[in-house]
């Protein structure tokens, strides 16, 4: 059931099937996400992430530094479109903001490893939410991409549902004002 909710939730803006063999290389869809502060103050969900090869990260261990948490999937067109923008954002804010990209792909490592191998995303981590704990924590049917900014104490500042221009001045101003 949860998988069906996730598959249906992606703000794909495309007539493509929800889970094609690989993300299409067509023109990028327009960014539709907007900053939503209505969840401000909520505590970061408790979840353990896994990296290819088996390393783990407890989200609780990220406290002490602001975190931009991005839930994405290889089959989600806006997710794939914003990955290079998030990669540059991670480089630009290195040391001041942790950018955590977390795959919600049901096939986990099987999809995530080739995705990263085919792209130059050296500044982004390859975390996976294998049990979909984060998807459940954000309501079970959360649309992808979902990006949430947390302050150093692990409290939500704002979130964006849908594709977003992470290279734009609005994004940078919203991040800078929260750091």
Features:
single chain; 179 residues; alpha/beta; Glutaredoxin; 6-stranded mixed β-sheet; two-stranded antiparallel ribbon; 8 strands; globular; disordered N terminus; antioxidant activity; disulfide oxidoreductase activity; Thioredoxin domain-containing protein
What does this structure look like?
About 40% of the residues are buried. The protein has one domain (about 1-10, about 30-179): 3-Layer(aba) Sandwich (Glutaredoxin), CATH 3.40.30. Helix 2 (about 75-90) links the parallel strand 4 and strand 5. The protein is about 25% helix and about 20% strand. It has helices spanning about 1-10, 75-90, 110-115, 135, 170-179; strands at about 35, 50, 55-60, 65-70, 100-105, 125-130, 145-150, 155-160. It has a six-stranded mixed beta sheet with strand order 1-8-7-4-5-6, with helices on one face. A two-stranded antiparallel sheet has the order 2-3. The radius of gyration is 15 Å and the shape is globular. The longest helix has 16 residues, at about 75-90. It contains five helices and eight strands; from the N terminus they run H-E-E-E-E-H-E-H-E-H-E-E-H. The N and C termini lie far apart (about 35 Å). It is of the alpha/beta class and about 180 residues long.
């Amino acid at each position: 059931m949860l998988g069906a909710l996730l598959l249906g939730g992606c703000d794909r803006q495309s007539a493509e099937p929800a889970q094609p063999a690989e993300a299409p290389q067509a023109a990028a869809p327009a960014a539709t996400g907007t900053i939503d502060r209505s969840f401000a103050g909520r505590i970061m969900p408790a979840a353990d992430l896994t990296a290819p090869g088996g390393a783990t990260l407890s989200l609780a261990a990220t406290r002490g530094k602001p975190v931009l948490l991005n839930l994405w999937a290889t089959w989600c067109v806006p997710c794939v479109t914003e990955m290079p923008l998030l990669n540059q954002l991670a480089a630009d804010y290195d040391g001041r903001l942790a950018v955590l990209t977390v795959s919600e792909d049901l096939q986990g490592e099987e999809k995530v490893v080739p995705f990263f191998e085919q792209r130059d995303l050296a500044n982004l981590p390859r975390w996976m939410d294998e049990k979909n704990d984060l998807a459940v924590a954000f309501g079970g049917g959360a649309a992808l991409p979902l990006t949430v900014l947390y302050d150093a104490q692990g409290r939500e500042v704002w979130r964006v549902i849908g594709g977003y221009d992470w290279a734009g001045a609005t994004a940078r101003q919203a991040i800078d004002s929260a750091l």
